[in-house]
Amino acid sequence: MSTRQVPTADPAPRPRIILHADMDAFYASIEQRDRPELRGRPVIVGGTSDRGVVSAASYEARRFGVHSAMPAAIARRRCPDGIFLRGDMKKYAAVSRQVFEVFRRFSPRVEGISLDEAFLDLTGTERLHGPAVEAGHAIRAAVREATALAVSVGIAPSKLVAKIASDEAKPDGLLEVRPEEVLGFLRPLPVERLWGVGPVTRERLRAEGLFTIADLETERPERLAGLLGEIGTRASELAQGRDPRDVESDRAPVSMSEENTFGEDQRDWERLAAVARGHAESVAARLRRSQWRAHTVVLKLKYGRRVRSGPRGFEQITRRHTLAEASDDGATLGREAVRLLDAAPRKPVRLLGVGVTGLAPARGPTQLDLLEQVHDRHRAARLNRALDTITERFGSGAVTRAGSERGHRAALSLQHKHGEREGDEED
C-alpha cells in the first residue's frame, strides 16, 4: 500500500529582532559625568564661537530649545546661561569604544552609525539573553555599569521602527514595537520621521496634502514615485512598514573629513592653503590608525555670502580629485587639496573642509609609480610613522608638517561616515 505525503506550507519567516541603542546627549553627558559641578546645568558642547555649531546639548539645555546642529548664536540667545565647552573628541571616542564593547557582548551583528549609536540584530539570541525586552534592559544596565551613562533603546522588527522607537524612549528609556504594532505606531507620525524625508522633501509632501505617515501609506506608490523619484518609492515602502535592510556589522566607512569654521571670513589664500594641509594631515592620520587608504580627496568651501535664509543658507561648493592610487599620506592628500583650493573662486571663505572617500583597506605597500623613487616612498612612510608616534605620545598639535596649520574649529567637526545620511542632500 502506498502512502501519499501531504504537502505542508512553508513556515512563516521568523520576525527579526532589531535593537537601536542611542546614548543620551552623549558628549554633554560625558562632560557632566567627569565634572560634577556641571550636573544639573545647561551644558552645550561645541559652538564656542558665534560661528560655531552645537554638537550636543544636555537635557537641561534642551529645555530652552537648544539642540545639535543649531548655530551657536541662536543657542546663546535661547540659553544665555548655558555653559559652552569646546569638547574633547579623543575622550568621547574612548568612551564610545567602551560602549561598543558592551554591545558586542549581546550580539555579533553590531552596526555602528556614529560614536554614540548602533543597531544590534538580536534575532536568535533569546536562549542566551532572554526575550528582547529583557536583553534591552540588560544592555542598558551594562552600559551604565561600564560608563556611568544612560542609553535609550528601541526594539522592533526593522531598523526604521527601532530607530524611531529609541527616539520616543528618550531620555533613558526603552520602547518595544512588536510586529503587529508597527503600522499603528507609524501612522500618526509626521512624514519627516521617515529616512530620506528631510525639510525639502517634507515641504513638497505638505504641498500635496501629505502630512503623516498614514497619508503616505494610503497614497498610490506611483504618485509618490512621480513626485519624488526614488525617494518617493522608498518612502511608500517604509510607510507600509516594509524595511528589509539588514544590520551590517563591521561596515567600512565611506568617508572621513575634518572642517573648520573661521571666526571671520578668511581672504588670505596662503593661510587657507595651510589650513587645508593641516586638515589633510589629520585625516591621513585617522586613515592610518584605521588602516584605510583613500582614492579621492574632497575639498569643501563655504563662502561668506548668504544666498538664502537659514543655517545652510551660505554659498557652498565641493570639489574632488581622484588619485592615481589610494593613499594615507598627509603630504599627498594636502597637495591635492591645495590644488583644488587654487582652482576655486577666490571669495571670502567662511568654512573650509578636507575629506576623503573611496576608501580601501591598507593591505601592504601600494604599487609603485614608474616615475617615483622607492627611497621617497619609504621616507614618507617613515615620516608618517614618526608623526603618528609623536601625536600618540604628546597629543595632536605637538608637531606639524611645515606649511600646514591646525585650524581652530568652531565646532566638533570630525566626521567618519558609515552610510547614507538621513534627509535630503540639499537640506
Structure, described:
- It is a single chain.
- With 427 residues, the chain is an alpha+beta fold.
- It is 38% helix and 22% strand.
- The longest helix is centred in the middle third of the chain and has 22 residues.
- Helix 4 runs antiparallel to helix 6 and helix 11 runs antiparallel to helix 12.
- It is built from 15 helices and 13 strands.
- It folds into 3 domains: 167 residues, Alpha-Beta Plaits; 53 residues, 5' to 3' exonuclease, C-terminal subdomain (DNA polymerase, domain 1, Orthogonal Bundle); 163 residues, DNA polymerase, Y-family, little finger domain (Dna Ligase, domain 1, 2-Layer Sandwich), CATH 3.30.1490.100.
- The strands form 3 sheets. It has a 5-stranded mixed β-sheet. The chain has a 5-stranded antiparallel β-sheet with strand order 11-10-12-9-13. Strands 3-2-4 form a 3-stranded mixed β-sheet.
- The radius of gyration is 24 Å and the shape is globular.
What profile does the largest beta sheet have? 5 strands, mixed
Q: Give the second-level CATH assignment, the architecture of the largest domain.
A: 2-Layer Sandwich
Terminal Cα span: 73 Å
CATH homologous superfamily designation of the largest domain: Reverse transcriptase/Diguanylate cyclase domain
Uncertain stretches: 408-414, 419-427
When the domains are counted, the total is 3
Regarding quaternary structure, what we see is single chain
The radius of gyration computed from the alpha-carbon positions, rounded to a whole number of angstroms, is: 24 Å
Say how many strands there are: 13
